[in-house]
Amino acid sequence: MDIDTLLTRGVSEILPDKKKLASLLNKKRITLYQGFDPTADSLHIGHFIGIRKLAQFQKLGHKVIFLIGDFTGMVGDPTDKSAARVKLTPAQIKNNYKKYKKQVEHIIDFEGPNKAIVRYNSQWLSKLNFSDILELSSNFTVQQMLERDFFAKRIVEKKPIYLHEFLYPLMQGYDSIVMDVDLEVGGNDQLFNMMAGRHLMKNLKNKEKFVLTMKLLTDKKGQKMGKTTGNAIFLSDTANDIFGKVMSMSDDSMPSAIELLTDLPLNFYENRNPLETKKKVAFEITSQVHGINQAEAAQKFFEETFQKGNLPENVPSFTINSDINLIDLIDQSGIVQSKSQIKRLLAEGAISIDGNKINDTALMLSTKDKGKIIKIGKTRFLKLI
Q1: I need a labelling partner for 341 at 20 to 30 A (CA). Which of 71, 139, 184, 264 fits?
Q2: CA 356, CA 184: separation in Å to the nearest integer?
Q3: What gap in Å lies between CA 22 and CA 2, rounded to an integer?
Q4: Cα(234)–Cα(237) distance, rounded to whole angstroms?
Q5: Does one domain contain both 326 and 287?
């Protein structure tokens, strides 16, 4: 990938100037990063967009830092939130991020001569004393913070804005100072936080820090796809689930998905069969996360199960010996991560038995139900024996 494509494809904005950044990239090896707050136990497809961009810079020889916001994650980024986030404990944060590196190691190279570095911002943010925080805070005004549209909206709606939420951009900005980066990458919804780092870098080090924002992947309603909106594709999902979830995306989301999530030509969807286009996009995304072999198996699974209507081979089974609640049965099978997720799937009409949708949380099953097939979501099956 050449520099012009690197700075254009999927990119929303480059500050202060795209030409200046291109010139810098031609002159030296830069240091860049993106931060990921571990507010869930898996990265999702929205993170994948920035992760791909980090990998593209790395392939051109630049130094990549994969920053885990284990301190900022406890506070919670207020971006686009109509209310303050629930604070997480250090134990919850650690449990969430422990698999992040493994989820992206097919995309970012953590080995070899130009290996990416994993850092944790608790290493410096937890060491700041009150005097340090006051000194850093003196670089910003309350008016600057109130410029954030969602804070203004909360004021109109008479919803509280907590002081620690004002400090979040300060903390993210301080990450840039400590790591002495040349560039920060993030979604365009992170512009305010990223500019805080640029502001601090200018004030404290008299250094130019570039900001590159990425376009966001949105659904057909214009909502950002992510865990908050309930339509996320998680990098911890199985290959079958990722492939199936991409196939369930709307046709009109494919141009955006092609640009942000694949290296396919931008016009790939033109004059092509929509189903075959989507299958290609699903294959490209799945292979980046899980490898080509698993992507090929996932495509075969999809074609056999959904296009031909056949039941997949080696369907997991559950031995039923007595009366049992449906939720307890699925939970004990281990096919879904938690009871709360099972209840959500029931509410969404995403669970069926022998083709009949189920939404009764009190449904009991017995030995009379042996032989029936429970379908969970689009790609998971369970046979009662």
Answers
A1: 71
A2: 49
A3: 10
A4: 5
A5: no
The candidate with the shortest Cα–Cα distance to 382, out of 337, 303, 338, 317, is: 317
Over residues 183-198, the pLDDT tens digits come to 999 999 899 999 999 9
Q: How far apart are CA 38 and CA 97, in angstroms?
A: 5
pLDDT digits (tens, 9 = 90+) for 23-49: 999 999 999 999 999 988 899 999 999
| C-alpha–C-alpha distance, residues 172 and 349, integer Å | 40
Residue 156 structural domain: 3-214
pTM summary value: 0.80
- Roughly what angle, to the nearest 10 degrees, separates helices 239-247 and 292-302? 60
For residue 142, which amino acid is it? V
In sequence order, what are the residues at sequence separation of 6 or more whose Cβ sits closer than 8 angstroms to the Cβ of residue 314? Answer: none
Q: Is the dihedral of CA 327, 331, 333, 335 positive or negative?
A: positive
Enclosing H/E stretch for 58: helix 45-59
Same domain, 51 and 89: yes
Helical H segments across 273-325, by residue range: 274-290, 292-302
Q: Which of 80-84, 128-132, 248-252, 351-355 is predicted most confidently?
A: 128-132
303: in domain? yes
Residues in the chain: 385
Report the CATH number that the domain containing residue 330 is assigned in CATH.
Answer: 3.10.290.10
Q: Are residues 165 and 34 in the same domain?
A: yes
pLDDT, one tens digit per residue, over 66-119 is 999 999 988 766 665 545 556 788 888 998 899 999 999 999 999 989 999 999
Tally of domains in the chain: 3
| Residue 68 covered by a domain | yes
